[in-house]
Amino acid sequence: MKLLTFTNILFFLMIISNAKAQNTANIQFQISFTEPQAHYVNVQMTIQNIKAKVTTIKMPVWAPGSYLVREFSKNVEALKINDANGKAVSYLKSTKNSWKINTANSSKLVINYRVYAFEVSVRTSFVDADQAFLSSPDIFMYVDGQLAQPVTVTIIPLAGWKKISTALEAIPDKGNIFYASNFDQLYDSPIEVGNQAVFYFEAAGVTHEVAMVKGGNYNTERLKKDMAKIVETATAVFGENPNKRYVFIIHNYASGGGGLEHKNSTVLGAMRLGYTDESTYKDFLSLVAHEYFHLWNVKRLRPIALGPFDYDKENYTTNLWIAEGFTAYYENLISYRAGFTSQPEYITELEKDINAIANQPGNKVQSLSEASFNAWIKYYRPNENSANSSISYYNKGALIATVLDLTIIHNSQGKYSLDDAMRYAYKLYHKKLNRGYTDAEFRAVLEKFAGKPLSFIYDNYINGTADIDFSTYLGFAGYAINDKNIGNQAPYLGANTTTLGDKLMVKNIARNSAAYIAGLNVNDNIVSVDGLSTNNLTTLLTDKRVGDVLRFLVDRDGIEKTIEVTLKANPNKKWVINKIDSANDAQIKVLEKWLKTQP
User: Fold this and answer.
1) pLDDT class of 247 with cuts at 50, 70, 90
2) pLDDT at residue 1 in the model
3) Are residues 187 and 214 located together in one domain of the fold?
4) How many Å apart are CA 383 and CA 377, to the nearest integer?
5) Eight-state DSSP code of residue 137
6) Domain total of the chain
7) Which of 369, 444, 362 is nearest to 400 (CA)?
8) Could you tell me whether strands 27-32 and 40-47 are parallel, antiparallel, or unpaired per DSSP bridges?
9) Same structural domain for residues 244 and 270?
10) CA 269, CA 256: separation in Å to the nearest integer?
11) What angle (nearest 5°) sits at the alpha carbon of residue 390, between those of residues 512 and 594?
12) If you compute the radius of gyration of the chain from its CA atoms, what whole number of angstroms results?
């Protein structure tokens, strides 16, 4: 007989409390599927104990973790509202995502509506004849002013669908009824319904459920072992794992990927037949590391603007470079620490990020803090000019995390690292103060462990657009960085093209390049260059030199134009990182702290 621990008793009492709440929750949902082949979800929302004369129900406009207003109410149809006796109740749609209901004579409402769900992604719902993935913010409405209300959700699976995977707690002996203590928890808990393959593993004292949707050539035992390593390694950064149960919902596609974090679960996209390819498999483990690290960084340790959420509009923060950029940094670091990548492979990934940022013209236009704040209108709405006008807070944020980690280790002579700063901030703002941090507060934490003000890094690299001096920071760890393209006089056009039928179309143009200055436009159809037709501009440039003039004949919306382009030298960098031959003791100490010995 296994004795109940104090934690077991608390958990048991919570289950009892949840079971009682099922009978007292004022807001209840029932989900069913009568036309899954047409991609519809049927939702019944019951609201009880209404005292207001007017009750407003709302649909969120965005999903936390994906910073774009997606207007989920556009997929709602067939809204019908009745009172407890089945009598129709009058209502008025008052805004794009809200409905005002006359409840002067109604203490209970039964609201029925349908949601069209046919967008394949980790952040939107998708239903077909085989399965249903419910991303909660685009399925469940809420009562205005009552986000703190407890909620129950009853799932009625389609006949033949046997499994439900979600981080929501099932109410014992109540069938497929699940409980959320409030709407924030509901909106943070995706639901998978169907016949997904499910397996479990234990790591860091937590039970992990893995729901594999639509098959794949994965090895279950290998995944259990490797995912457990990721969990243990990530947990070691913060010193504790706050969950008792965690759910991975993994959608296996012919191609594709991505992930979205939740407090007690995550949704991942993976290649169905990619598990036996070592490179693709390592990429998948990196994705696991990224999204799992989020259960601390952003779901608990978070910018102050990101919770409690306003589901009606954008929630602005200048700190997505911490929320996402630091997580991108740790995904590679965790993969390395867990033994999935070697030190040279880790350095190669760092080179890729450095070159990606250095060769993006937008790096000189948009600062990292601006990229975070403007994610709502730029990052998730890219166009042909995005590379010229913006920067990724993922890639550059990861590079700033590298700079800060090396700075902290160097300044503390190996006593501290970024791990210590993250652990301290987690304990202070999440556990002690139970709130998010401000920009100034997180900066103060970093400076505490760096042992000095970080004005130069903030002014130049975070709030400014100066090139990062990687020679200095990598030099702390005994690495040198060099540009292999110095002196390269290869001609550079600066236009990328794509083939559309028999047409060679301009897809994008780099800022300040030869094509940019001469006036080539995106969507120009290149008819000929110097009188010769071509379908490959790279081949065309092989025998050209800097200063050569090319005559482009283009078809621009049915009008032919001749444009003369004077070739410029290729401005792109090719940064390569190498170990210094004779690193000193201080550099060796920093390197050993930064890239710790693997298991």
Assistant:
1) very high
2) 36
3) no
4) 11
5) G
6) 4
7) 369
8) antiparallel
9) yes
10) 6
11) 110
12) 27
Whose structure tokens read 């703002």?
A: 429
The single residue listed with the structure tokens 């209970």 is: 108
Domain range for 450: 320-484+582-594
Dump pLDDT digits (tens) for 482-535.
999 998 889 999 999 999 999 999 999 999 999 999 999 999 999 999 999 988
> Mean pLDDT, to the nearest integer, of 394-412?
98
The answer for 134, left when phi > 0, alpha when psi is -120 to 50, beta otherwise, is beta
User: What residues contact residue 284 under an 8 Å CB cut-off, 6+ apart?
Assistant: 268, 270, 271, 274, 275
Q: Rounded CA gap, 329 and 349, in Å?
A: 10
**Token pair in block for residue 496:** 């990328």
Mean pLDDT of 98-110: 96
With 50 as the cut, is the pLDDT of residue 573 above it? yes
The fraction of the chain above a pLDDT of 90, given in percent, is: 92
Distance CA 85, CA 87 (A): 6
Positive or negative, the Cα torsion across 224, 225, 226, 231?
Answer: positive
- In this predicted structure, the answer to whether residue 322 has a pLDDT above a threshold of 90 is yes
Task: Name every residue whose Cβ is closer than 8 Å to that of residue 360 and which is 6 or more positions away in sequence.
Answer: 387, 391, 392
- Report how far apart, in Å, the C-alpha atoms of 450 and of each of 126, 189, 362, 410 are: 46, 37, 29, 8
Contact 325, 400 (CB under 8 A): yes
Eight-state DSSP code of residue 215: -
Query: Amino acid letter at 474?
Result: L
Quote the pLDDT of residue 11.
39
- Residues with Cβ within 8 Å of 446's Cβ and at least 6 positions away in sequence, in order, are 404, 408, 421, 454
Whether 539 and 501 map to the same domain: the answer is yes
The pLDDT tens digits for 54-95 are 999 999 999 999 999 999 999 999 999 999 999 999 999 999
Q: How far apart are CA 82 and CA 342, in angstroms?
A: 62
Contact 598, 340 (CB under 8 A): no
> DSSP assignment of 442-491, as one string?
HHHHHHHHHTS--HHHIIIIISS-PPP-HHHHHHTTTEEEEETTTT---E
Q: How many CB atoms lie within 10 A of CB 419?
A: 20
* Same domain? 203 vs 166: no
**What is the CATH classification number for the domain harbouring 87?**
2.60.40.3650
Residue identified by tokens 């989900």 is 31
Is 187 in the same domain as 74?
Answer: yes
* Residue the block writes with tokens 């436009």: 521
Task: Kindly give, in sequence order, each residue whose CB lies less than 8 Å from that of residue 449, ignoring residues fewer than 6 positions away.
Answer: 408, 412, 416, 418, 420, 421, 424
Q: CATH code at 556?
A: 2.30.42.10
Q: How many whole angstroms from its chain centre is CA 64? A: 10
Q: Which pTM value belongs to this model?
A: 0.94
Whose structure tokens read 């990292």? 368
Is the model's pLDDT at 2 over the cut of 60? Answer: no
For residue 308, whether the previous peptide bond is cis, meaning omega lies within 30 degrees of 0, is: yes
Helix (H/G/I), strand (E/B), else coil: 132 = strand
Q: Is 178 within 8 Å of 54 (Cβ atoms)?
A: no
* CA-closest candidate to residue 155, choices 128, 171, 175, 185: 175
Q: Answer yes or no: is pLDDT of 544 > 70.
A: yes
Report residue 565 as tokens.
């382009």
